[in-house]
Amino acid sequence: MSLFKCSHSISVSELLLLLSLVSGSCQASVLNGVVGEEVFLPCVTTEPVVKTTKVFWRDGNDTAVLNIEDSKDTFSSPKYSGRVSSFPEEYPKGNFSIVIRNLRLEDADTYDCDIPDQDFTLKVKLEVTGQLLYSYSKCCLNPELSANT
Ligand SMILES: *[C@@H]1O[C@H](CO)[C@@H](O)[C@H](O)[C@H]1NC(C)=O
Ligand SMILES: *[C@@H]1O[C@H](CO)[C@@H](O)[C@H](O)[C@H]1NC(C)=O
């Protein structure tokens, strides 16, 4: 038994990564957002979910994006507070996806959806782009360019 355990120490997230590499779909976990808009971060488990199932969304700094406990969203750290929602009616289906609103450039990060009871971790990479063209033309971030015109 112990030998079996030791030789199967690969984590669920590693397995998911391997599977996605094998199927060539590793791009699927990269999402694109735009500053000021909102983005949907998917997290769906196929394991049975009970009322007490806890889900912890974390950013790359291990900051709490959203905690889901006892079928309620219970906590977001100040960085995300008021900008994150989930879908309680979907929890029983194992759907713990979230939406982050009013995106900021610094939201570009890797997010983890952790379900410790199930040993389940899903990683989602978020890229955020701003209206750079707009700000460049309005401002003087590139003085050489404006001097030439
Ligand atoms: C992560 O933490 C470091 C150190 O506290 C900080 O400099 C950095 O801005 C943080 N990153 C994000 C995305 O919050
Ligand atoms: C999860 O819930 C969201 C919000 O209702 C929905 O848009 C999405 O399709 C659901 N995902 C799955 C796999 O059911």
Automatic annotation (TrEMBL):
Signal peptide residue numbers: 1-28
High-level lineage: Eukaryota, Metazoa, Chordata, Craniata, Vertebrata
Domain of life (superkingdom): Eukaryota
Any coiled-coil regions, as ranges: none
Organism: Ameca splendens
Protein name, entry field: Ig-like domain-containing protein
PROSITE patterns referenced in this protein's UniProt entry, alphabetically: IG_LIKE, PROKAR_LIPOPROTEIN
Localization: Cell membrane
Pfam families: V-set
Record flagged with keyword Signal: yes
Gene3D superfamilies: Immunoglobulins
Annotated InterPro entries: Ig-like_dom, Ig-like_dom_sf, Ig-like_fold, Ig_sub, Ig_V-set, T-cell_Activation_Regulation
Membrane topology: Single-pass type I membrane protein
Keyword Plastid in annotation: no
Residues in Ig-like domain copies: 36-129
Keywords: Cell membrane, Disulfide bond, Glycoprotein, Immunoglobulin domain, Membrane, Receptor, Signal, Transmembrane, Transmembrane helix
